[in-house]
Structure formats: structure tokens, C-alpha cells
């Protein structure tokens, strides 16, 4: 399915109806404006009943952890773990999330078994636990935090060359590859 | 009050002398200088103060409380002659290599399992690399293989992230499996 059709409401409607999970990797939501908090008092202008009910039934809980964990300390703890385990901690609390977010570039790298670029320019990445079809720029950019065991390309067509150039730009030329494999033999000039 | 000079005596002799350390809850600890010197912060204080160091009136530690300092001292006594630890990481994945702990160290952390964050912060302030990195490893060991819910429960943290924020985090971390 093309990315333009994803913005179509029917795509989500159908998926929701039949219980098909959304492809969250390639779905980029539109940037929203900063939301101004609405007053919870009924008399004030801009009162939202929905928000008031949400606050009533789902009040924001505050962290019990008395000590504020610094980013440096958390980085030293998370550097002992693989990237998956470390990033998982972002879901613990706001404090953890805000401490981990700035240190993400310094965490350990993901290990990808294979990154394949097909003749039509499509990119597939196979990790240890799952494989992903990389479409969005965001998902391609995330390759800079990956260690790729094998990079495989079908042939060096113009399309593939453009894709490689795009990967290079998006990852700031920080793609780490152990082995390069191809169906075609290349000369030095290519 | 007798004032003793820290510079006037040779180092081995000085290490056998006692110094009073005052924590932020006004508790005084009488410690051998050799033991206190495991902490680089205290060692620097001793060196900087030099002749003006008053061994009996105490070195103030405003960022550490008594109960935690007691635990830190236990570590320092055991590691006073230990060599500096070497922190290594995997050159490819950048993951830190884990240290092998002795039986005493394992027992020490088992005893103070509920104070690991405080211990790490105290070790960071006092600049005790061995205690700091070992505590970090122990914390990582506790986090490893657990779900965010289990981590929250273990450290007594309440969930203050909204569902939207969680969805956004999941979307951003393309390669993560939760």
C-alpha cells in the first residue's frame, strides 16, 4: 500500500474493523500545534468536559522514586544492556523517558542480521527478532544505531545507487556493516 | 582541640590515622585515612587541605546521608588496597563488558538491594569507580529481561506516561521489541 493511501481515513477504518494492526513504522502522523491546557472549571471559557472526565478518571500519577536519577547515571546503567533492553526503559516513567532520550546516541547498537536492497529500491531489514520493510525516512535514519552483519544488494542500478545515497545521507555516513554481498560483480569504477 | 598536620607525616603513617567525616544528617564517622582515601573526593580534600586539615573536627559530606555512608564505608574497607578497575566495552556493539564479582561483592549487593540507586549516587559523588560501576551493573542486572511494568514495581515508580506518549515512544524505537 502506498504511503499516500495511508492518510486516507478508510485505511484506518478498515484496519480497525478487521482488527489488523497499523503499520506504525511507516505511518507518520501530521505535526500538531502545541496544545494549550484547557481549564477544568466549568465556568471558565474553553472548558472541556471530555478533558475534565479524563482527569477525574485517569489522574496523572506522580513518580514515587524519591531520588531524581540523573542522565549520566542512567546512561552508565543502560550501557551494560543491549539497545533493546535499554530503550525499553523509556516506557517506565516520564523521568526515565526524559533521562534516556538525550543519551540515546551513546547507547549500545542494535544488531541486524541482514539489510537487503532489492532491484526495485525497496529496503528490507532482518533483525534477530523480526524483519521490517523500511519505507519512511525515520526508519532508514534509525539504521545509524544498528550494526549490520550483512548488506546485500541485487545489482547496482540507478535506483539502488540513489537508495544507498539516501541511506548514507540519513545515517550521516555512519552505517556499520560487517559483510557486503552482491549478486553482481563490481569493478572499481562502479 | 589538637590539630594534626596531614602534610607533616609520610603517607603510610597518615593512612593509619583517623579522620572524622560528617554526613549531611550530622552523623560523625571516625575512619582510617587509608580507608577514606578509596574515595577520590575525600582523597582530594585531604590533599588540598594539606597542613590546615583538622583531623578531629571532620570532613563534611553534604551530599551523603549517614545510613548510605555506612554502606559505602563497608565497601571502602574491603577495597582499600584493590587495584583500579578497568571499564571495557565491546568495540562493535559498544555494550559494556560485565565485571566478575567476588562472593563478598555479591553478598554486599544482596544485602543492600533496595538501596542501589542511592549507593550509585553516593559512589558517583564520592568518586569510587569500583562501587559506582559495580552498582550500575547490578542495577542493569535487575532491569535485564523485565518488562516496564515489572521495573516500575521493582523500583516503586508510578506510571505517569499517557497512552499517547507510550505509543509515540514505541513508534520512535523502530527496532525495539517490547
UniProtKB/TrEMBL annotation, chain A:
<dbReference type="Pfam" id="PF00646">
    <property type="entry name" value="F-box"/>
</dbReference>
<feature type="domain" description="F-box">
    <location>
        <begin position="71"/>
        <end position="104"/>
    </location>
</feature>
<protein>
    <submittedName>
        <fullName>F-box domain-containing protein</fullName>
    </submittedName>
</protein>
<dbReference type="InterPro" id="IPR001810">
    <property type="entry name" value="F-box_dom"/>
</dbReference>
TrEMBL record, chain B:
<feature type="domain" description="SKP1 component dimerisation">
    <location>
        <begin position="130"/>
        <end position="176"/>
    </location>
</feature>
<dbReference type="InterPro" id="IPR016073">
    <property type="entry name" value="Skp1_comp_POZ"/>
</dbReference>
<dbReference type="Pfam" id="PF01466">
    <property type="entry name" value="Skp1"/>
</dbReference>
<dbReference type="InterPro" id="IPR011333">
    <property type="entry name" value="SKP1/BTB/POZ_sf"/>
</dbReference>
<protein>
    <recommendedName>
        <fullName>Skp1-related protein</fullName>
    </recommendedName>
</protein>
<dbReference type="InterPro" id="IPR036296">
    <property type="entry name" value="SKP1-like_dim_sf"/>
</dbReference>
<keyword id="KW-0833">Ubl conjugation pathway</keyword>
<dbReference type="GO" id="GO:0006511">
    <property type="term" value="P:ubiquitin-dependent protein catabolic process"/>
</dbReference>
<feature type="domain" description="SKP1 component POZ">
    <location>
        <begin position="19"/>
        <end position="81"/>
    </location>
</feature>
<comment type="function">
    <text>Probable essential component of SCF (SKP1-CUL1-F-box protein) E3 ubiquitin-protein ligase complexes, which mediate the ubiquitination and subsequent proteasomal degradation of target proteins. Regulates cell proliferation during embryonic and larval development.</text>
</comment>
<dbReference type="Pfam" id="PF03931">
    <property type="entry name" value="Skp1_POZ"/>
</dbReference>
<dbReference type="InterPro" id="IPR016897">
    <property type="entry name" value="SKP1"/>
</dbReference>
<dbReference type="InterPro" id="IPR001232">
    <property type="entry name" value="SKP1-like"/>
</dbReference>
<dbReference type="InterPro" id="IPR016072">
    <property type="entry name" value="Skp1_comp_dimer"/>
</dbReference>
<comment type="similarity">
    <text>Belongs to the SKP1 family.</text>
</comment>
<comment type="pathway">
    <text>Protein modification; protein ubiquitination.</text>
</comment>
